[in-house]
């Protein structure tokens, strides 16, 4: 197998460092030192850190776009709901720095902010289409107005969940897939009042798989130093 190209190595190392330490704590010098290369070599491929972030956002965008699609040619099932939730959880975990530092990233890069706005609009439209698919399959019982509200609420929960964890736990490095799983559970909980009786048992199994106790989500408050 061929060795990864230098550009790909830079992107992967940046993702690892951003996720572990937070984007604000990582400079291009940190990235080049981590890779054992000169800053000039890094700048040959990416002239600044914003360009690396833009590349990572493009990867994240493509990954989410590939997930948020209705299956063609068949009715949707509860198994599709499992697929969507677990795939989105995996995407959130893999690119968690984007969710943690989103406001700062968008303020620092107007072009990225423009791309994100279109990405958000596209995700909301696709989410509504997917919820409509669950309605047509008899899994959810909702009106178009309720579908629109649910899609928006789900987006708000998912895009703010990592930041919520950081503010309530205090340590950006203290994140785990279990903690993100509770965020997906919160999205599922938004649907509870709309689930058809015929799908209740299958959805309940999803609840049990995703649930993480609240005491694990919000860490104990440390004693303040005098």
UniProtKB/TrEMBL annotation:
Signal peptide: none annotated. InterPro entries: Homeodomain-like_sf, HTH-type_TetR-like_transc_reg, HTH_TetR, TetR. GO terms for molecular function: DNA-binding transcription factor activity; transcription cis-regulatory region binding. The keyword DNA-binding applies. PROSITE patterns: HTH_TETR_2 (PS50977). It comes from the Bacteria. Keywords: DNA-binding. Gene3D superfamilies: Tetracycline Repressor, domain 2. Residues 4-64 form the HTH tetR-type domain. The keyword DNA-binding applies. Pfam families: TetR, TetR_N. Residues 27-46 bind DNA. This is TetR/AcrR family transcriptional regulator. It comes from Pseudomonas mangiferae.
């Amino acid at each position: 197998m061929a060795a990864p190209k230098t550009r790909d190595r830079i992107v992967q190392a940046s993702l690892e460092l951003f996720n572990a330490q937070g984007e604000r704590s990582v400079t291009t010098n940190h990235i080049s030192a981590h890779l054992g290369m000169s800053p000039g070599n890094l700048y040959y491929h990416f002239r600044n850190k914003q360009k690396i972030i833009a590349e990572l956002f493009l990867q994240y965008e493509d990954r989410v776009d590939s997930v948020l699609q209705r299956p063609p040619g068949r009715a949707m099932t509860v198994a599709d709901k499992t697929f969507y939730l677990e795939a989105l959880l995996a995407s959130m975990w893999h690119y968690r720095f984007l969710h943690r530092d989103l406001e700062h990233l968008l303020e620092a890069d107007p072009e990225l902010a423009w791309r994100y706005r279109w990405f958000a609009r596209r995700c909301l439209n696709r989410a509504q289409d997917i919820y409509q698919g669950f309605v047509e399959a008899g899994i959810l019982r909702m009106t178009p107005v309720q579908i629109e509200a649910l899609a928006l609420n789900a987006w708000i929960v998912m895009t703010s969940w990592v930041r919520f964890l950081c503010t309530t736990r205090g340590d950006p490095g203290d994140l785990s897939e279990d903690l993100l799983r509770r965020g997906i559970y919160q999205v599922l909980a938004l649907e509870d009042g709309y689930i058809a009786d015929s799908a209740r048992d299958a959805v309940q199994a999803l609840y049990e798989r995703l649930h993480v106790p609240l005491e694990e989500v919000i860490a104990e408050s440390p004693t303040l130093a005098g």
